[in-house]
Amino acid sequence: MRNSLTAKLRHFPWGRYLLIALGLSFLAIVVVFPIVNIFYQAFVSGVAAYWEGITTPEAQHALFLTVAIAIVTVPINTVFGILMAWILARYSFPGKVLLVGIIDLPLAISPTVVGLMFILLYSHTVGVFGSWLEAANINVIFALPGMIFTTLFVTIPFVVREVLPTLQNMELAEEEAAQTLGANPWQTFWRVTFPSIRWALLYGVIICTSRAVGEFGAVSVVSGKLIGETNTLTLHIERVYSEYQTVAAFACASLLAFLALLTLIGQEVLRTADKPRSLAGTQVLKQKN
Questions:
Q1: Predicted TM-score (pTM) of this structure
Q2: Residue 222: CA atoms inside 13 Å, Cβ hemisphere, count?
Q3: How far, in Å, CA of 194 to CA of 186, rounded?
Q4: pLDDT tens column, 115-126
């Protein structure tokens, strides 16, 4: 079937060009044009207006809070993701399928529902643990801890889902050989396993970071949207846009878009820089053999 389709496209080159044009047009309309428009709208009133939009105290605090939440949640979910991927790839146990489903659950639940779930657990007024938290003078809802918890919840699957297939496809012979030669589990992981999963891990961390920085729904429910206190950058963008501060909204939105683009560029630079080292290592191994 595949060969037949390929042969038809060769006989009708216009069909191939049409498919390429459709694909590029779709990407342009859905991805490229909106991103370009963000930067255009951000700078349409000049650099001074752009700078004013991103340097207000509220915008600066929102940016700081957004980065702080990402700095806390991404490392936690990175460690958790590697651990869970290792467990799922290397061990068989009752309830394994259920565990995979639980890890994927945040992808299926609406972020608004996620925020409501945490309110029903940790709110001082209606939460299951609310009375205990109030007695201990601990604020989770409408405070930073609640925002961290919800961000952790919605970003749990990404590292696991990127690393798990790579671990499942790895040959165990190298790990077993390292252990036979006297390497402990930690040395085996860093010297044998980690080099094989590093790119999958990097992709997972990038996706996790992007989701943590750009999260809106769950955080908006538990934050209370307190200006200068619990407003993240996405919440700040929503507020200033609703107040018809269009330039400020697009200026702050461009920061998120720029961060995403910078992350992707950095990933490609690291990947390109790593290729010569990988090829050199392969050649050394061939020479030794």
A1: 0.83
A2: 32
A3: 10
A4: 999 999 999 888
Question: Distance between CA 171 and CA 285 in Å, rounded?
Answer: 17
Structure tokens at 249: 């909204």
Task: Using alpha carbons only, give the angle 88, 198, 166 rounded to the nearest 5 degrees.
Answer: 40
Cβ contact 256:233 at 8 Å = yes
Q: Give every residue of the chain whose pLDDT is below 70, as ranges.
A: 1-13, 270, 273-289
Q: What is the DSSP letter of 129?
A: T
pLDDT in tens, 257-287: 888 888 778 777 767 766 554 444 444 434 5
Q: Given the structure tokens 């790579």, which residue do they identify?
A: 166
- How many whole angstroms separate alpha carbon 160 and alpha carbon 204? 7
Whether 55 contacts 255, CB under 8 Å = no
Collect all residues with Cβ–Cβ distance below 8 Å to 267 and sequence separation of at least 6: 202, 203, 206
What's the sign of the alpha-carbon dihedral 173, 176, 180, 182? positive
